[in-house]
Each structure stands twice: as structure tokens, then as C-alpha cells.
Amino acid sequence: MERNQELFLYDLKCVRLLGEPDIIFAGLIDQMGNLVAGGFKHGILPSEDEAERRKMYLDVILRASLRKDFDYSLGPVLYSASRREKVVMISFPLGKRILLVTTEVNVDIDETAQKIIKIIHTYC
Predict the structure, then answer these.
(1) Which domain CATH number covers 106?
(2) Does residue 88 lie in a domain region?
(3) Is residue 93 within 8 Å of 64, Cβ to Cβ?
(4) By CB distance 3.0 to 4.6 Å, which of 17, 53, 83, 112 could disulfide with 107?
(5) How far from the centroid of its chain's Cα atoms is residue 45's Cα?
(6) What is the pLDDT of residues 58-88, one digit of tens each?
């Protein structure tokens, strides 16, 4: 699949994810920490500036690459989540990219992750 077409499809999937009531942000991050598809739900203003968001994206990429070191013994990561005081962040490895989703703090992480997995693997 052509790169632009693939990114367009991921952008559509992110739009679909943003239609879920508890999801605040859904974005596809490349290996260099760039947001290449998706973004914030309409009407949501990010609390970080662009430089801080880029730093956060790079952190997500770094952590995902470090987790791959244990794929041989533990199996590949399906998703990784962190519950913070203000949001829940869930990342999903998708080849060389990461889908990063931010939700409201009160979500059930496993239930939400399964819903996201279903959307990204069946939508479009």
C-alpha cells in the first residue's frame, strides 16, 4: 500500500477513535517522533505546547523500542498503558509506528484497549 494512502487510512481510523466519548487524542507516531496521522478531538486544546508534545512522542517511541527487547521471551507487546492523574495513555505498536491514544482518567483500560484494537483492525 502506498505510504500516503496508508496514512490516510490511519487518519480515518483516528477520526473514528475520536468519535468515542472517552477518547481525547488518537495519533499515529512515526519512528522519529512525528505525528503523521490523527490528533486531538475537536474542541480540545492540548495542555502542552508542540515541543513538549514532540518530546512525549519521542518518549513513547523510545519506550516501545526498549520493550521489543523482550519479545523473544515474553511475546510482542499488544498495548501498553499508563494511568496518570489527569489522563490515561495507551500505546499500540503498529509495525514501525505507534498508535497513541489518550483517554479520560476514569476508563477501564483493558476494555478501552480492546475496543481500540477492534477499531484499528476492522475499520476502513
Answers:
(1) 3.30.450.30
(2) yes
(3) yes
(4) 112
(5) 17
(6) 999 999 998 988 999 999 999 999 999 999 9
Of 102 and 4, the structure prediction assigns the larger pLDDT to 102
* Count: domains in the chain: 1
Q: In 3D, which of 27, 24, 52, 54 has the Cα closest to residue 39?
A: 27
35 falls within a domain: yes
Give DSSP secondary structure letters for 74-99.
H---S-EEEE-SS-EEEEEEETTEEE
Q: What is the pLDDT of residues 12-52, one digit of tens each?
A: 999 999 999 999 999 999 999 999 999 999 888 787 888 89
Residue 52 lies in a domain: yes
- pLDDT band at residue 118 under the 50/70/90 scheme: very high
Measured distance CA(108)–CA(120) in Å, rounded:
18
The amino acid present at 105, given as its one-letter code, is V
